[in-house]
Amino acid sequence: MVSPGAHDGWLVGSSADAVAHSPAPCLLSPLTAGLDPHLATMACVLPVGDVNGSLRDAAAAQPPPDGTLAGVLAHDPFRRTGDLLAELGARGVHSIVNWPSVAPLSGELAAALEHSGFTYQREIDLLREARAGGFRVAAVVHTRDQLQVALELGPDRIVVTPGLTTADARERRRQGEATTALARSAQQRSGNPVWLHLHPGFAEWLEGSVPAGVVVLRHAAGSSGA
């Protein structure tokens, strides 16, 4: 059950799904919305699937409702950012978020990706370019350091994600509590709407503890992950 004063939002795979959930907030990410959440968090920051192509096709089939966040992969080796943003804008996309993101990754995996150019800063650069092009932007964050970087950009909203799950229940609880605290800090410091990704692996620790006013980003029925 969502905390009193919090609001439901939805991760969706099509603009039609976003329309069906309207006026609730939605994040449109066709590829990640259909994957297991544990796989998608790690794999979708890599060009293993055409994240941006599926987003472009979804917007072409039906423009997403105004206010829907369109999840753009910043680390797309096959498209120029400017061309992609222009294409999305022409298809009725008005709001961009760096999703999927390397933000929740850590340790050796994060270090290897950063060495290959898959950096959080690159995602912030994408958002900066999108905002210069007239888009509203939202920034995904997982740590306080990332929140500071995101706030310097001045996004229209912050999306807090709990990161990768673990089999250790105590560690999941610690991460869940840290995520709630980060959402509260983002809300206080940004002065803008904050969304919290309710990753199924952390639902037991996040449900009922979300700060009032935060949008809880849930998985739409029929979708298994993000």
Comma- or semicolon-separated keywords:
single chain; 226 residues; alpha/beta; TIM Barrel; 8-stranded parallel barrel; 10 helices; 43% helix; globular; disordered C terminus
CATH topology: TIM Barrel
The name of the CATH superfamily reads Aldolase class I
Rg of Cα set: 16 Å
What proportion strand?
Answer: 15-25%
Task: Describe the overall structure.
- The chain has a single domain, classed as Aldolase class I (TIM Barrel, Alpha-Beta Barrel).
- It has 10 helices and 8 strands.
- The protein has 226 residues and is an alpha/beta fold.
- Helix 7 runs parallel beside helix 8 (144-153).
- The protein is globular, with a radius of gyration of 16 Å.
Annotate the secondary structure layout:
Blueprint: E1 7-12, H1 15-21, E2 26-28, H2 30-33, H3 37-43, H4 51-61, E3 69-72, H5 81-90, E4 95-98, H6 107-115, H7 120-132, E5 136-141, H8 144-153, E6 157-160, H9 169-190, E7 194-197, H10 203-206, E8 215-219
Parallel strand pairs: 1-2, 1-8, 2-3, 3-4, 4-5, 5-6, 6-7, 7-8
Short description:
By secondary structure, the protein is α/β, with parallel strands linked by helices.
